[in-house]
Amino acid sequence: MTGAARAEPVAVLDAVVKRFRGETALDGLSLRVEQGEAVALLGPNGAGKTTALSLLVGLRRPDAGVVRLFGRDPRDRAARARLGLTPQASGFPATLRVDEIVRLVARHFSDPEPAGALLGRFGLGALARRQTGGLSGGEQRRLALALAFVGRPTAVVLDEPTGFLDVEARRLAWAGLRDYVDAGGTLLLTSHHLDEVEALARRVVVLSAGRVVAEDHVPAIRARAGLARITLACDPGVVLPGVVRSEPSGSGIVLFAVDPAPVLQALVAGQHSLAGLEVGRARLEEAVIALTAADGDGGGPG
Amino acid sequence: MRQVACPRRLTATRPGANLQPAALAFAYLRAETVELARHPGFVVPTLGFPALFFLLFGRSVAPGQAAAVTAGYAAFAVFGVVFFQFGVGIAQERALPWQLYLRVLPVAPWQRFAGRLGSAVLFAAAAALAVIGVALGCGGVSIGVTGWLRLAAALTVGALPFGLLGIALGYLLSPRAALPLANLIYFGLAYLGGLWTGPEGLHGVARRLSPLMPTRSWNDLVAGAVGAGAWRLGSLAALAGWGAAFALVARFAYRRDEARHFR
C-alpha cells in the first residue's frame, strides 16, 4: 500500500445487510467515519449497534454490502493495526497482573505507549503490580479503556466506554478521550448516556431496526432531545396540542412533547382521565426516534 | 469542520508491518504460562495427579516392568495436559470476552496458537518429569540416556493425536457437556490403553478392547522406547492414523464453530 497523504475514511459501511437465523440485524446500514471525527452510535437494544461494531472490527462479515476499515477488509489484521479497542471489562485473565496485560497487548503494535505512562494517564499507576482478579469493577473498566490506547491508535472504537465508572473517574476518562480527539484521533462509540454523548461526540448516528434513522451534530440533537414523556393509563383518543409522537403502551399510551404543559392543560380542559399519569424526560433514543418519525410524517398536524 | 491532522498518521505508514512475529508468539506463550502457573487449581492436579497415581497404583503393578510402567504414567501425564489445557481448553475458551478481544487485535492465528502450544509443551514436560522423578525416587527404574531420549520422542509423537482429539471434542460439544464427557473419555482411554496397569494388568473386556485404543498404541510406543520390547512400526502407524482421523474431526468441528460464531 502506498503512503498517500490523502486521508481515507477510517470506517465505511455501505448498504450492509446482516441476518442471524432469519432475523435481520442490519438492514442496509450505511455509515462513514472520517479521520478526526467523534461519532456516537445510539439506538435501543437490538437496533444493530453491536452487530455494526462486530463487523467493523472484523469479528463477523456482512451478508451483503461492503465494510472497510482504513480502506481494507477489517478481517485483514493489517487493517486493525491502527485501531484501538476495549475488551469487556469483566473478562481479564484473573491471575495476570495489570502491567503484564498491558505489555501483552503492547506487543501487537509497532510503537506502543510505555506501560508506565499509559497506566499513569488512566489513574492505574499504583495498581500496575496487582492481579486483575483483585481489581474493583471500576478499576477493571479503566484498564479496559486504557488498553484501547496502548498502540497509539489512529482510531478507537468504544462500546459503552464509561458506563460503570463513578462520577470522578468518568470526568477523568472523558477528559482523556477529548484530548485524544483534539489531537486528531478518531472516536466511534456507543452509549446509552446522553451526558456521555454530549461530552465526547460531535456527531450522532441513531440506529433503529438495523438502519440509520437520524444523523446530526450534537447541538442539533441536543435541541431535539429535550422532549417530555407523558404516560397515561387510558388513551384519550384525541389529537393533543404539542404532541410530536405517541405510542401505545399496554392499554394506555405514551406521548412525547417538547413542552408538557399545553398537553396537560388540554387533557384537563377536555376532562380526559388522568389515571396513571407520569411526566418525565424522554431518554435520548426515545426522543430522537420520536422526532425522526415526526419528521418523516412531513410535519403534518401540529 | 476543519480536520485536525492526526499526528499518528505520519509515523504509521506501515499498517500491519510485521513486528517480530516470533516475539509476539513468545509473549503469548509467556502470558499463558504465567497465568496458569499462578492457578493452584491448575498446577496441583496437572503436576500432582499423575505422579500421585503412580505412587498409589503404578508402583505395585507389574514388578520387573518398572521402566515400562513409568513410561505409561508419563504418557498419562502428557495426555492430561495436551487433552485438557491445550485441546478442550482452546475450544472452550474461544467465546470468552478476553479471547474475543485477542481475536480482534492485530495478531495472526498461528501466533496465538504457537503460544498456546508452547505453554502446553512446558506443562506436559513438567508433568512427565514429576512422574519420572517419583519413579526414580521409588527406585527400580534404570533407563539409559538413549532410552530417555527415545521416551521424549515417543511422548511428543503421541501427544499430537490427543491434543487434536481434545480440540475436536471442545469444538463439537457445548461448554456444559464438554468437561464431564472429556473426563470420561480421558479416564476411559487411559485405563483401556493400559497406561495405569500395563497391558498385562488388564483383564476381561478391557483386555480385549485395549488393542483397539489409541492410548494402547501410545503405551506400546513409550514402553518400546524405554526398552520393554522393540519399537514397533505398527504402533506408530496406528497413532498416525488416529492423528489423521482426529485432525479431520477437529477441522470439521472448528469450521462449523467458526461459521456459527464469526460468520
Q: What do you see in this structure?
A:
The complex is a heterodimer of chains A (302) and B (263). By secondary structure, chain A is α/β, with parallel strands linked by helices. Helices cover 29% and strands 26% of the residues of chain A. Chain A has a six-stranded mixed beta sheet with strand order 5-6-7-3-8-9, sandwiched between helices. Chain A has a four-stranded antiparallel beta sheet with strand order 11-12-10-13, with helices on one face. Chain A is globular, with a radius of gyration of 22 Å. The termini of chain A are far apart. The N terminus and C terminus of chain A are likely disordered. Chain B is mainly alpha-helical. Chain B has one domain. Chain B has eleven helices and no strands. The N terminus of chain B is likely disordered. The interface between A and B is large, with 50 and 39 residues.
Features:
heterodimer; A: 302 residues; alpha/beta; 6-stranded mixed sheet; 4-stranded antiparallel sheet; globular; disordered N terminus; B: 263 residues; mainly alpha
In short:
The complex is a heterodimer of chains A (302) and B (263). Chain A contains nine helices and 13 strands.
Helix content of chain A: 25-40%
C-alpha Rg of chain A (nearest Å): 22 Å
SSE string of chain B: HHHHHHHHHHH
CA(first)-CA(last) distance of chain A:
55 Å
For the termini of chain B, the CA-CA separation is 38 Å
In total, the number of domains of chain B comes to 1
Kindly state the percentage of residues in helix of chain B.
Answer: over 70%
The number of E-state strands of chain B comes to 0
Strand content of chain B: under 5%
Query: Which stretches of chain A are low in confidence, meaning pLDDT under 50 for 5 or more residues running?
Result: 1-5, 295-302
Low-confidence spans of chain B: pLDDT under 50, at least 5 residues? 1-18
Q: Which sheet architecture does the biggest sheet of chain A show?
A: 6 strands, mixed
SSE-based structural type of chain B: mainly alpha
Backbone shape of chain B:
globular
DSSP summary: helix tally of chain B: 11
Question: Structural class, from helix and strand content of chain A?
Answer: alpha/beta
- Oligomeric state of the chains in view: heterodimer
Summarize model confidence as the mean pLDDT of chain A: 86
User: How big is the Rg of chain B?
Assistant: 21 Å
| Strand percentage of chain A | 25-35%
Strand arrangement, major sheet of chain A = 5-6-7-3-8-9
